[in-house]
User: What shape does this take?
Amino acid sequence: MLSPLKRFVPPDCIRWSIFFSILLIALFTACPKPPAPDIETILRAQPPAQLPAHSLLQPAVRPGSPSAADLLLRRVNLLGQIRTALALAPAQTLPLVLPSEPQPPCSIRFALGLLPQYWERHPQPVNFQMVAGDKTLWEQTLAPARDLEQRSWQEVTLACEAVPGQSAELKSDARDYGALVTPLQVSRPGPRPSVIFILVDAMRPDHLGAYGYSRPTSPHLDTLAASGVRFENAITASVFTLTSVASIFTGRYPWEHGVIFTRNLHLPTSLPVLAQEFQKQGYFTAAFSGTYFRFSLEGFDRGFQVFDESCAQAFFRDSADCLNRAALPWLQAHAHQPFFLYLHYVDTHAPYYAPEPFRHRFTQGHRPDHDAAGLGDAARFGDGRKWYQVPFRLTPADLEYMKDLYDGEIAYADARIGEILDLLRQSGQMNSTLILVTADHGESFTEHGELEHRKTLYDEALKVPLILAGPGLPAGKVIADQVRTLDFGATLLGLAFSDRIILGEGRSLKPLGEGLPLAPVFDPEAPFGLSSRPKADRREPALAAAYLGKEQRIYALRTLERKLIVRHAKPQVELYDLRQDPGEQHDLSRLNPLERETLFRQLQSLCPEVRYSGEQ
Assistant: This one.
């Protein structure tokens, strides 16, 4: 067997190689493996959570029952979906206080799960029960070791009349920690509307039919805009996704919330977020995100009872289909109680690689004679790709082809949003649901020498669509006033239940829909409830920032008439007249030094990070 090797390798070398190979195998085999951590330790390492105020779990109601501090409440991820869950200790029972006056169509909703480390070690089925004395009110058995479909969260809905008002207990026969129960909540139809917040990553407004685009890219969004209010000048606070979404969720500018690409991406726990405000009001809250980066790892899941990131691996490839497969069942199951649902579609983000028939819907059979991911060849990067490339030098034909593919992505996202809207119509929810559609930022196609969005604050990247439809909103209204993404949260809270809830610096846009000026922010701690902040009006500037490196920062101050752009690395200031020059091609900073300096000082007063003089 070794004879062919003897021609090239001395026999002694072969023998010594075999000897050392056997020795290494023996050493590795003899080394003891570190013991696997126990399941309780695994659970305690998960992010902690709090018991919602509206939960039916009532710790420490009776002597000997666990207190709130004793409960092992954690944020637990099962197959990409994160929920607040209570981990039952072996033989632990939990006291419940059921609704005393159940009135149909009242129901009790919760979810069950088993930690993978549990069923891998204990493959036997686990039985969950709700009991009152010696009477079993409900029970369900999970066996994820043999049933793949039971490895995710299992939704449970009980009619209130099936568990009449009384004290009850929840328990399981699990042999170890790992049996998971989400907090039980009562679901009832109410007068308040449900809210759906739809964000389509990098979707430019001027590529939508509702905003005058010639191609039929967005028939479903166009119909929605015709039934509600369309804003022509909505401005994002940042052109980086996490920074932009942080501003939407908190109502604060990037330098206030600190979620900045070059510094820190974690959302501070000290800042209230939009989902928390809805949850406090008894809303069911859920989010479904298609982005490859995990929002939950940076604290963006706060306030969401369900935060689903199971479609992260589908990023750039049929992502909207994956998102709808996850979100539509949840939406259908929660049709009859107020909910807040956040949907983050990512398909319009480069590289543009929609599934057929959308991919080449607008290419008219043309295709460049070279390949790059930005031109539709995304396959080379695999399902989990995060990076891609475009040709070093784009020809005019390449650029037009990229736009064609981008429009195909918009059409794809629009079709899947259409499925959401169709379900609302079929279930009778359309007239009782507020719907907001927007983007985190726009997209550049070399209008100012850049592709995509991260390095520019010109309007192609800064302007986002804003469509609002639902009960109480006029149909077909178009608002030209400039608004900010910071205002979106306050607007939804104001339309859903209260104008008096403050979310950062955001102001409700509800008055604009009624033809009124924006009102001052209500502040319950200020005299007569009126905020000490300056009164908002239609001429209030919008601010934005892009962070490219430690000293590479760009800031913008925008009004309806003017745009000031400040580059921090080499101080450079640009000034544009948006009325006469909407494409921002003619810098007026040297021609209008007084106006440039006035706007610069205003930017400095609003953004403390802008430190140096505006002189050039």
Notes: Residues 81 and 308 are 4 Å apart (CA to CA). The domain at 39-187 is CATH 2.60.120 (Jelly Rolls). Confidence is low (pLDDT under 50) at residues 380-388, 521-538.
